[in-house]
Amino acid sequence: MSIADHRFEPPERLARSLGAGPADETAHAWLAKLPHTVQEYLERWELTPERVVTPGGRSSMLVLVRQSDGTPAALKLALPDGRAALEHAALTAWHGLGAVRPLRADTEAGVLLLERLSGEVSLRSLTEPKAVLEATATLQRLWVRPPQDHPFPSVADGTARLAGAVREYGAQPWAAEARALAEEALDLREALTAGGQEPDCLLHGAYEQGKVLAGSRAPWLAVGPRPLVGERAYDLAWLVRDRVDTLLASPGSGAGARRRVTRLADALDVDAERLRGWTLFRATHAGLSALAHGSRPAGELLLEFAAML
């Protein structure tokens, strides 16, 4: 094996996120091999590297590259845990409509080559009203009928793991003050997955303003899906939570949070009560997870937001 190029060492945020658990030998081995893996795919796909994106994400590494014809692209490397295959399947189904285009893939290895977007410019760079308008317009383009024989989990199956985490965290002594909220979130999730939903759509699964980047062939394109199939209210929930720190710092923040639910539900013809339920569930899960992993300010902020709903 050739000597690894230190330019391709994992960014600190990624190493800290995936390397935090000493028992996770798979993640540690993947991080250690990452510089070699980058070099392997640069050679295999005839790519010229420009730079590693920093601080980058918490679950993948992105290297800005140029293809052999000089076209800019982005090489994304993630743990080979199956998520890249789902991401590639969703991006392929969207055909570049509202989302980044995949150029090449080795999904078993967790490696994707994507069209280059302006990673420094997301919808968060816009004023809130403009960002919400663009975010909802882009999201609607992603809500298509799932392909036949698709590999995507349902919202019910996808949230079963989240519910397990809420149940586990909610039982911990440090979560005593959030226990009632955790129980409400679990009850809501149970009711929401019991039936009465609209026909299934292909969902982004992790949609927020920061996941919508400026592009050259379209003004705004979504990246980083965690695709599922199910009702649209689940996908819309994270937009309700966006810029939560600004919301909670405003007078009448509780009423403001509820108005967000109503406005977004009306704008996209989604049932407001189901949107409220999914928002509360997802915010509670995220808040408890943040507390469990030592991010107290973020966790408390999300749980305060969930309680307002």
Automatic annotation (TrEMBL):
Region (Disordered) location: 1-20
InterPro entries reported for this sequence: Kinase-like_dom_sf (IPR011009), NH2Glyco/OHUrea_AB-resist_kin (IPR006748)
Domain of life according to the entry: Bacteria
Protein name listed in UniProt: Aminoglycoside phosphotransferase family protein
Matching SUPFAM superfamilies: Protein kinase-like (PK-like)
Organism this protein belongs to: Streptomyces gamaensis
Biased amino acid composition, Basic and acidic residues: 1-15
